[in-house]
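Re: the 131-residue chain
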Amino acid sequence: MMTFAICDDEPLMAQELARRLADFMRERSVTDYSVSSFSSGRALLEGAAGFDAVFLDIRMEQPDGMETARLLRGRGDHSLLVFVTVLKECVFDCFQVEAFDYLLKPVDGARFRRTMDRVLRRLEQRTAEGV
């Protein structure tokens, strides 16, 4: 089962990402997945661990999304991190935490689907390698 986390302090954005994810998975006929939503980095860090992919806003209360990503990596988490933010200026910071992708709000549907296609390919590759 694939596991996804959405971490955004804006409930409407979290709902939109969950809807886009569900629509994408339905289009690809993928049914074996789960989505968990978190309203803060702290809640994500205290919640379940080991998600396959995490959609993470940057601009949130402390710890913000970038610090949350650093803390995840610091504890050995290998989730695919996809930042979803309005902050264009943080794009280069995402390399420090080995982010998988960086989506700008408002999220473009075609860009989201391309990112998700890559996410699925990477997760399939990890499964094949036994990672």
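The chain has a mean pLDDT of 93.
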